[in-house]
Design goal:
95 residues, mainly alpha, 2 helices, 76% helix, elongated
Amino acid sequence: MAKPSTSQAGNHSSAWVFQSWASFILSLLATGVGLFYLPSTTWAKAYMSISVLFTISSTISVSKTTRDIHESDKLTAMVDEARVEKLLSEHHPLQ
């Protein structure tokens, strides 16, 4: 049985992490500049800004929930595999 990785961050290169954060910050800045220069009322700009923030927080929540479900399924599978291995190691077909 393979030993599970204890650190998920070890699976990503520093270039990937940098690119992920850079694209996130750049997209927020671009959206903010676009909203700032939008020819609209302050109330409409505020509404769209709050909507963007809500979308970001919802995306983070969904991704964390999906990750947690996946990790839970992996843990359950590991426990089931350990049970099967124990049963097989205790089984002696010639007895």
